[in-house]
């Protein structure tokens, strides 16, 4: 069976080493203005948050959105209630660094860099590009490196969403002081999705006052979102469910207003 994650990570190692030679870390550090933790600031304003993903392609499903550019998606999301944007910079998703920079220039929403971060270089690069947050995938980072990357992100004024998929990932993430935990409903080998993964791991977590839970992937309806909110999640990260909708604006509003639908105050 094809292992998409392993393929992407191996490719990423080659690409990062090439980029480090092209633009040395010392040069990047000179261009950085430290962030102000805008992602957490924005998400603490509400008990429900939609992280809307500007996603054009999936390695497993191919092209997902033919009708809009990354910048057009970002504008739609901002106008229809998203709390934060997720912008891919990995080419397997048709992402590139320039997309993040372009979105940063046109939106006031916080932006998370969505990529496969395996080197601290990418953290500094993310901040240089204008990211307010980064995704750290527990599955591809050793425990100590995960912790170091978290502190590096914080040191740059960025928030970090630690992504987990199973109990081993969960245990690794809980060994850090990370506030934002993203439970990925996507099987990281086959890229299939099932929101039951979020529900299962949320039960393992129990009640945690100092963690903010985000469910990622495989979320398509307000009914899905309500189930997740009732299970203790404070938000969702949605890409395919938005970009493949017949009306992206309406779907963004639907998934961002779950608190109102669920009879809870935002």
Automatic annotation (TrEMBL):
Pathway: Amino-acid biosynthesis; L-tryptophan biosynthesis; L-tryptophan from chorismate: step 4/5. GO terms for molecular function: indole-3-glycerol-phosphate synthase activity; phosphoribosylanthranilate isomerase activity. Its EC number is 4.1.1.48. Belongs to the TrpC family. It comes from the Bacteria. NCBIfam families: PRK00278.2-4. Keywords: Amino-acid biosynthesis, Aromatic amino acid biosynthesis, Decarboxylase, Lyase, Tryptophan biosynthesis. It catalyses: 1-(2-carboxyphenylamino)-1-deoxy-D-ribulose 5-phosphate + H(+) = (1S,2R)-1-C-(indol-3-yl)glycerol 3-phosphate + CO2 + H2O. InterPro entries: Aldolase_TIM (IPR013785), Indole-3-glycerol_P_synth (IPR045186), Indole-3-glycerol_P_synth_dom (IPR013798), RibuloseP-bd_barrel (IPR011060). Pfam families: IGPS (PF00218). This is indole-3-glycerol-phosphate synthase. Residues 5-255 form the Indole-3-glycerol phosphate synthase domain. One of its GO terms (biological process) is L-tryptophan biosynthetic process. CDD domains: IGPS (cd00331).
């Amino acid at each position: 069976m094809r292992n998409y994650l392993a393929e992407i990570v191996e490719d990423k190692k080659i690409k990062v080493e090439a980029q480090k030679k092209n633009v040395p870390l010392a040069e990047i550090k000179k261009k950085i203005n430290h962030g102000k933790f805008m992602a957490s600031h924005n998400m603490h304003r509400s008990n429900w948050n939609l992280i809307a993903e500007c996603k054009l392609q999936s390695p497993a499903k191919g092209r997902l959105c033919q009708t809009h550019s990354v910048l057009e998606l970002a504008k739609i999301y901002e106008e229809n209630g998203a709390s934060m944007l997720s912008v891919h910079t990995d080419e397997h998703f048709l992402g590139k660094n320039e997309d993040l920079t372009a979105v940063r220039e046109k939106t006031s929403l916080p932006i998370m860099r969505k990529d496969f971060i395996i080197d601290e270089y990418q953290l500094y690069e993310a901040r240089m590009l204008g990211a307010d947050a980064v995704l750290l995938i527990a599955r591809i980072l050793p425990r100590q490196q995960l912790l170091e990357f978290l502190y590096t992100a914080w040191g740059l004024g960025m928030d970090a969403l630690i992504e987990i998929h199973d109990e081993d990932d969960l245990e690794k993430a809980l060994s850090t002081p990370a506030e934002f935990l993203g439970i990925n409903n996507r099987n990281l080998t086959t890229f299939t999705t099932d929101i039951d993964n979020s529900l299962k791991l949320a039960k393992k977590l129990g009640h945690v006052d100092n963690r903010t839970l985000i469910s990622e992937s495989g979320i398509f309806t307000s009914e899905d979102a309500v189930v997740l909110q009732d299970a203790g999640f404070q938000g969702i990260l949605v890409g395919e469910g938005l970009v493949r909708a017949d009306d992206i604006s309406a779907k963004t509003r639907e998934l961002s207003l779950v608190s109102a639908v669920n009879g809870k105050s935002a």
